[in-house]
Amino acid sequence: MKPPIYVINPNSSEVVTAGIDAAMAPLRMVGGPEIRCLTLAEGPPGIVTHFDVQSVAQPLALRADALAAEASAFVIACYSDPGLYVLRERLKQPVFGIGECGVLTSLTLGERFGVIAILDASIPRHLRSYGAMGVMGRFAGELAIGLNVQELAQYDRTLARMTEVGRRLRDERGADVIVMGCAGMAAYRAPLQQALGIAVVEPTQAAVGMAIARVQLGWEGC
Amino acid sequence: MKPPIYVINPNSSEVVTAGIDAAMAPLRMVGGPEIRCLTLAEGPPGIVTHFDVQSVAQPLALRADALAAEASAFVIACYSDPGLYVLRERLKQPVFGIGECGVLTSLTLGERFGVIAILDASIPRHLRSYGAMGVMGRFAGELAIGLNVQELAQYDRTLARMTEVGRRLRDERGADVIVMGCAGMAAYRAPLQQALGIAVVEPTQAAVGMAIARVQLGWEGC
Amino acid sequence: MKPPIYVINPNSSEVVTAGIDAAMAPLRMVGGPEIRCLTLAEGPPGIVTHFDVQSVAQPLALRADALAAEASAFVIACYSDPGLYVLRERLKQPVFGIGECGVLTSLTLGERFGVIAILDASIPRHLRSYGAMGVMGRFAGELAIGLNVQELAQYDRTLARMTEVGRRLRDERGADVIVMGCAGMAAYRAPLQQALGIAVVEPTQAAVGMAIARVQLGWEGC
Amino acid sequence: MKPPIYVINPNSSEVVTAGIDAAMAPLRMVGGPEIRCLTLAEGPPGIVTHFDVQSVAQPLALRADALAAEASAFVIACYSDPGLYVLRERLKQPVFGIGECGVLTSLTLGERFGVIAILDASIPRHLRSYGAMGVMGRFAGELAIGLNVQELAQYDRTLARMTEVGRRLRDERGADVIVMGCAGMAAYRAPLQQALGIAVVEPTQAAVGMAIARVQLGWEGC
Amino acid sequence: MKPPIYVINPNSSEVVTAGIDAAMAPLRMVGGPEIRCLTLAEGPPGIVTHFDVQSVAQPLALRADALAAEASAFVIACYSDPGLYVLRERLKQPVFGIGECGVLTSLTLGERFGVIAILDASIPRHLRSYGAMGVMGRFAGELAIGLNVQELAQYDRTLARMTEVGRRLRDERGADVIVMGCAGMAAYRAPLQQALGIAVVEPTQAAVGMAIARVQLGWEGC
Amino acid sequence: MKPPIYVINPNSSEVVTAGIDAAMAPLRMVGGPEIRCLTLAEGPPGIVTHFDVQSVAQPLALRADALAAEASAFVIACYSDPGLYVLRERLKQPVFGIGECGVLTSLTLGERFGVIAILDASIPRHLRSYGAMGVMGRFAGELAIGLNVQELAQYDRTLARMTEVGRRLRDERGADVIVMGCAGMAAYRAPLQQALGIAVVEPTQAAVGMAIARVQLGWEGC
């Protein structure tokens, strides 16, 4: 039996990890790899700044090192993909970033992807990622809902803002598929898709889905 | 229990379908969706020309229509993604093309993807696809092995040619991940990766892997 | 004397073919190639869906085959360029798609091209074509007038909608040249250009113009 | 009857103009516009440097001004398109540059265009043009034959060099269509295409072909 | 001691040169190169049309030739970079265009640059420059203030228009850094940045800053 | 008098810092900002892996914080630009990365830049940076000299390898300007340029040159 896939939430919020864990339910198959969701205790409560993104790379790497003997893949559950290449260079297992996987998955669901960010300050960082990925030709736009962490707990208000921003991406920027630019928003995916009438990608689910296939195929080792 | 994923080989070669079917083994999980591989009897023995690509779209659509009541997803097992958008517009289920999924998957395994084609004549068609996908900024090159269908049956010779072409893509064009530009070459993936020392993507496996996740997540319906 | 250029309308609407034929008048020169406009009887009344686009490729190819002995060039008179590469691979004569030629011609008339589509559903398909053509860096935007075939017969209403959409492309998206994203709208070109104050390209005329030169030059044969 | 199209050779070499004039023969149709080829007496013997390119813009503009009352279009017969936008801004007639038209025409004949330049020094200037045109995604490469003006008169040697450079563009850079990066090489087009087995575009013919259609259609005036 | 950097204003307006000269104050360092600002007497009062841009290249080159014996670098103080490559090909000293340097400098200050132009007619020319520079992927938009030369003398009105246009670039187009698309607007830089809250680049200062470093480093000579 | 510019070498090798310091000589002007070169004691001996790049971001940020009260700008002297955005988000002073500045500067010296890397493993990371910068359209290629740190101390051997790699970039990839992809190679710049005959950019000098101008202009504060 294969060792588990580790989904590491690099912020220290257990509630976010719990949300991610719940979102994994449909991807847990009897004959498939176990999916274990962990919280990086050393991480900040939320990953907002560039400092946050950089600061979790090292503890993420150490955590992954410690788990490597009994892991079949790693998923970094933050849309900024902190430490993605650090983990890739030191582990023989496949490593997935939810930002990368969310965007790539969206390319199979629409022609131009729009992204809903939490805060404006993250958008330039995300733009650099899309440039580095070479997919700016498919990018429709990215807009932030502008809520802080406490406000995010208010379900109706958050969904309303996500819907509003999603409509602007669809109608003003021409997006025909939406990527949720944050981990752990899985609870909003279905109602948001319902409200917008276009596909909505939850990036952690997208990444774990790709990880499961990779683990089953056993392509690592080169 | 969810209905099966249908992997349709749009050429009429049962041996190709059998090869695809064998390659599905690691993706068949007890709790996951069933994977059924079919041959499009109406298809040509191999899909080589633009005429071949176009001519299978309609029978593929009809076949998918007939299966739709009991299907959870469709995978079109030809690297030229024939009929991909035709099926997408008429089915509520997710539809995957192995060309699209093979390339997108490669973007998580390397910085610049190279492609091994069967014949030179297909390369311009593939280039248009990469342009349409908006990923030319990640494209290293594509080279053909130049073997006809009968010659492809010669395992050692084919592997030698693939290895030679893969080395040129790696050394002369800077590819650090290889996509096999054809369905049903799964038997060559592991030895080719071993010979080249860089990851090799088998596109049908890549596509079915993405399909399994999509089926489990049930994102269809928008 | 050279054989004629065949302009094939791949939908079965004779009225559309008649409109195309009328638009050819200025391109019919005494010493130039004859221009014959045909209707593809097997085609659907209008080419709207991806299925429509794919389904006409084969009858188009057969029709072109039948005409090949006495043709000097072919023009496919549908903005989605159905069957373009199918015809190119089987004919020694040059083959032109009005989508491709309309866009390329617009690049000599302005810096950023905007496109007026009939229906929203065609826009993603057109975007993939522009990506495949490698001209997305010159693309300003594409918007649909959203009229069905019957409504298109209402001249004033159609012109009003085209003018409205053209103004949005010019003012909101920065287009300084407009491509009409459909065959047989030649009757609207001059008044639309008059209303917008920027050049408007009628794609069938653009394509036939390029075809005449190619026939006169006799570059085919490689 | 419409006034003539003026093809202005911006270098002062009458022999180049004579070659251009001869190449116009197939484009002279009884019912089509007259094509008059002129030499810009103020131009340098050949346009090699950036200084040359810039220095001819003003006399070109004055010459075009003087002809404007009796002209239906202008073609600037130098691959660097000197003065193209100067003429476009001051004339109501359409103005074509052979560099722009040569490249756009090549996009209908192959997937990746290669260019044969005369001298290495022109290549960076041409690259900027392709960038400005937004077509770098279709660009295979550009190589110079490295002959001076006197050597160009040696037919066999020049053809041999063009063939050699064309083969490198085809085999090493992946070009499947060649643009001749200079006016007045029409005499080499057919044998070069014969030798290379891929289409070769003579840019002045390409540009005049587009001009004829534009004149016939009478789109100017916006 | 090194010879001076010459900043040449290619229009004939001494008041513009005086404004540029005043803006050089902070870049004049005791141990650094002298900065001399000159007016091109042969230039038009303002550089507006393509004709203007082309027409100053030759007198600029002659002026630079005359100064070359005692110059360490040249800066062409017009956002359209007239004659940039002409000067580069004939001088051993480094030559800078303020358009090029303004945009490159902006790329270190923000993720997407917006440009404030004087007149709409210049925008397509600028777009071609950004395309030639290969930086369209970082371009947010360009809008004109639409004031003529006389109106530009009205400080408050001009600042109000620049602020309004800058806000549109920031809010509607997503610019997070602004380039002033004209020489000699240095007086507006600080208040405009204050009003917009994002960095504003004055391109002549940007170019002279790069020139000083180049002169000190003495990289010329290859 | 303005406070100094701090050039921080994020690896712990004092000899590298000494080389950088020596290279600053021409940029030290009497009336210009002081340039102080520091070694990040917490850094690894050399920055090779992704882990190295990430691990220095936090100590770099703390070091910059400590210096911020008396600094006018910061330059991060590692071609991978570690911590660039971390420092930018927390400091009011301008912050420069030598990778970014080296490439931007090269765009004023040639049409297509080639990069000489130390090790193959860094090249994919650099490619992502160029993609994020949006300048891949100007990129000719990057090749590594493949020497380890000890071997780099051998002057003649290193110069020979750099020359060999530079020639390949120039002749096989079409580079007409070279960027040295590492800090502290200033001693090789002049002889390498001499050997190659095309401009060579030393990135720390390029970055500090841009920093001096920014400090003098005082654009910070928005």
Question: How does this model look, in words?
Answer:
- Six copies of one chain form a homohexamer.
- By secondary structure, chain A is an alpha/beta fold.
- The mean pLDDT of chain A is 95.
- Chain A folds into two domains: 5-97 and 204-217, 3-Layer(aba) Sandwich (Rossmann fold), CATH 3.40.50; 100-203, Rossmann fold (3-Layer(aba) Sandwich), CATH 3.40.50.
- The first copy, chain A, is built from ten helices and eight strands.
- Chain A has helices at residues 14-23, 50-55, 57-67, 84-90, 98-106, 123-133, 149-152, 155-171, 186-196, 203-217; strands at residues 5-9, 35-39, 73-76, 95-97, 113-117, 139-144, 177-180, 199-201.
- Chain A is globular and about 50 Å long.
- In chain A, helix 3 runs parallel beside helix 4, helix 5 (98-106) packs across helix 10 and helix 8 packs across helix 9 (186-196).
- In chain A, the strands form two sheets. The first copy, chain A, has a four-stranded parallel beta sheet with strand order 2-1-3-4, sandwiched between helices. A four-stranded parallel beta sheet of chain A has the order 6-5-7-8, sandwiched between helices.
- Helices cover 45% and strands 16% of the residues of chain A.
- Chains in contact: A-B, A-C, A-E, A-F, B-C, B-D, B-F, C-D, C-E, D-E, D-F, E-F.
- Chains A and B meet through helix 5, helix 9, strand 8 and helix 10 of A and helix 5, helix 9, strand 8 and helix 10 of B.
- Chains A, B, C, D, E, F: Belongs to the HyuE racemase family.
- Chains A, B, C, D, E, F: InterPro entries: Asp/Glu/hydantoin_racemase (IPR015942), Hydantoin_racemase-like (IPR052186), Iso_Racemase_Enz_sf (IPR053714).
- Chains A, B, C, D, E, F: This is Asp/Glu/hydantoin racemase.
- Chains A, B, C, D, E, F: It comes from Variovorax ginsengisoli.
